[in-house]
Amino acid sequence: MTETALPPDGPRRTRVRLAARTLRTDRWWVGPLFTTLGLAVFVGYATARVFQQDHYWAAEYHYLTPFYSPCLSASCAPGSAVFGTLPWAFPWFLPYALVSLPFLLLFRFTCYYYRKAYYRSIWQAPTACAVREPHARYTGESRFPMLGQNLHRYFFYIAVLISLVNTYDALAALAHGRDGGFGIGLGGVILLGNVILLWCYTLSCHSCRHVIGGRLRSFGRHPVRYRLWTWVSALNSRHMLFAWITLGTLMLTDFYVLLVSSGTITDPRFFN
Predict the structure, then answer these.
(1) Residue 155 dihedral angles phi and psi, to the nearest 5°
(2) Domain hosting residue 75, numbered range
(3) Is residue 9 one of the residues assigned to a domain?
(4) Which residues span the membrane (predicted)?
């Protein structure tokens, strides 16, 4: 048996050469197209709302949109800064959402599922099997700025803290009726449903699964962590589903708070 000689500088990474644009006969482009459109809609909506700096707080019902939570600037709407404010106001060019939204976006940007989604749809590396790629070289995530993808676990920790804040906001909305007592309105239900789905997305993260039990050498010695690991693994199998659902619920929740706080609609009340 003869051995294949390697180049002097080691094995080289090359792209598959296809003479045709694609060897596929199906509508392979539909998936990447809808992925690109879905991500573009969310990024466009979130950007517009973040820089609007208005209609993020419905004081009568204690509804705070998750895009602006926590609101820490000294110029936040009265009552919206439930955890207090910094001793100064943010400059006009810095949105209130600067406190949390960048970390949440980085958590999603470095998410294993979202990497696959935008690598294939936007960067086209690869777009689909048997489809010619526009890139001549492939370096994976071995160079800057893609090395930053390794920070995903740390963004996960921050996302957990922000999810706790969002949980407080949702429960606080349920505890504030029109007269200051307990009350439940449609907005409170939407906020609560949104935060439950956000927890499903956050806890189904691959990093969460690894933190819970990925480094254990023996599950038999850690029965509690093993049980938690099996629950997280079950959620992990639906991570892509939660990734897309929560993009929709975040926009829906924010848009509902916008409508109520601007006086466009009145919040339907179930109690009080």
Answers:
(1) -65, -30
(2) 30-271
(3) no
(4) 28-46, 96-114, 154-175, 181-201, 241-265
